[in-house]
Design goal:
The chain is an all-alpha fold. The protein has 2 domains: about 10-45; about 50-80, no CATH class. The protein contains 4 helices and no strands. It has helices at about 10-20, 25-45, 50-55, 65-80. Helix 1 crosses helix 2. The two termini are about 45 Å apart. The mean pLDDT is about 85.
Length: about 80
């Protein structure tokens, strides 16, 4: 399926040089690049919200009785520590 893409001069030069170095067409470089890049984006966007924060959660339970009252505050602190 034909697709038209306009590149700035720097990107066009980079594409041409890469294609020349490995002896393939510019279209082949673009296809390989998209096939490498797009799956990681799709996987990240499809992840269940729990998976995004599971490393912040304790698997054994917290042992805290105040989570229902202070849950948001505790989670915000955990996010700040992670960042």
């Amino acid at each position: 399926m034909p697709t038209s893409i306009r590149f700035d001069k720097k990107t066009e030069s980079l594409l041409e040089e890469a294609a020349r170095l490995i002896h393939v067409s510019k279209a082949e470089i673009i296809k390989r690049s998209l096939n490498h890049y797009c799956p990681s984006i799709l996987e990240e966007k499809r992840r269940h919200p729990y998976r995004l924060i599971e490393d912040l959660l304790d698997k054994k339970g917290s042992g805290r009785g105040d989570l229902s009252i202070r849950g948001e505050e505790i989670l915000r602190k955990a996010f700040r520590r992670k960042a």
